[in-house]
Amino acid sequence: MRTVSAAAVRDAAGVAAAFPHVWRANQLGSYRTATVPTGHATLDRELPDGGWPASVLIELLTQQPGIGEMRLLQPALRQAGSRAIALVQPPYPPQAAAWAAEGFPVQRLVWVKSRRTVDALWAAEQSLRNRSCVALVLWQPQVRHEALRRLHLAAQGGDATVWLVRPLAAAQEASPAPLRLALRPAAAGIRIDIVKRRGPRRDAPLIVPLENMPAADFHSFEPHHASVAQRPSAVVTARNAAAVLV
Fold first, then answer.
1. Which residue has the higher pLDDT, 142 or 241?
2. What is the residue-wise DSSP string for 120-184?
3. What CA–CA distance (Å, rounded) separates 111 from 66?
4. Segment 66-122, tens digit of pLDDT
5. What's the whole-number average pLDDT of the chain?
6. Number of helices (H), then strands (E), in the chain
7. Which of 47, 105, 168, 194 is most buried, taking the most CB atoms under 10 A from its CB?
8. Is 54 in contact with 160 (CB distance < 8 Å)?
9. Domains in the chain, start-ordered, CATH in brackets?
10. What is the Cα–Cα distance from 27 to 114, expressed in whole angstroms?
């Protein structure tokens, strides 16, 4: 049986320490960026550096919107401090009363609404490049690889935590995002399959309990609910008058 010398082990450890994109196959890697705890211990234990990495693109792949993805992100968003949280092209209007009830100052929420995918992507890129938000959530049913690459590069140029919510079927597609999670509903929580991470493959899903709050509280079909107040944005309307920041 072949043995590995102590010197070889030290050399491997030195390489892993010197190059952030290199890690041992049986260990979690590192992003070498700031990390925000997810607020869910079960998930933190399975993520490099123990949380959501900033300055990279994170993908959340869902069966359908509203299965608990916002409740999953809620503890991290609570740590945003005084800077803005951008919600770009969410499937339903954000409900100001629900966000306020959870302790989020509504004036910090920025809702980007666009008729065209290209404008939503552009607005997200500009928000990241201008460092105008500390957290950004973007919903897109279809995204080309080139757009993914641009988003990842824009994220790398700033310090925001960036989540892209896409359909579950996109798990079969290549992506520059270093962290990709597939989300499915589960009893009293959410099931998470780790599609991609810097570290060993994990086949068994995670079951993460979520706070006892209906998912529709953050987004709603009902037009009579109070939505985040409209605020015109020179950044987005300069690109296309049909794109409105509210």
1. 142
2. HHHHHHHHHHTT--SEEEEE-S---HHHHHHHHHHHHTS--EEEEEEEGGGGGS--S-SEEEEEE
3. 17
4. 899 999 999 999 998 889 999 999 998 998 888 888 888 888 999 999 989 999 999
5. 81
6. 7, 11
7. 47
8. yes
9. 1-30 (no CATH), 33-245 (3.40.50.300)
10. 41
Angle at 119 between CA 73 and CA 167, to 5 degrees: 45
Q: Count other Cβ atoms within 10 Å, centred on residue 139.
A: 20
What CA–CA distance (Å, rounded) separates 211 from 150? 34
The residues, ordered by sequence, that sit 6+ positions from 245 with a Cβ below 8 Å of its Cβ are: 110, 111, 112, 113, 123, 231, 232, 233, 235, 236, 237
Relative to beta strand 109-113, strand 161-167 is unpaired
DSSP string over 97-121: HHHHHTT--GGGEEEEE-SSHHHHH
**What are the residues whose beta carbons fall under 8 Å from the beta carbon of 17, sequence distance 6 or more?**
none
Other C-beta atoms lying within 10 Å of the C-beta of residue 8: 10
What contacts 53, CB < 8 A, 6 or more positions away?
Answer: 31, 33, 34, 35, 47, 161, 178, 179
Burial of 144 (0-12, 13-18, 19+ CB in 10 A): exposed
CA dist., res. 103 & res. 150, Å (int): 33
pTM, rounded to two decimals: 0.80
List of long-range contacts for 23-32, beta carbons under 8 Å, 24+ apart: 23/198, 23/199, 25/200, 26/200, 27/199, 27/200, 28/197, 28/198, 28/199, 28/200, 29/197, 29/198, 29/199, 30/198, 31/55, 31/56, 31/178, 31/198
Q: Give, to the nearest 10 degrees, the angle between helix 117-129 and helix 145-156.
A: 20
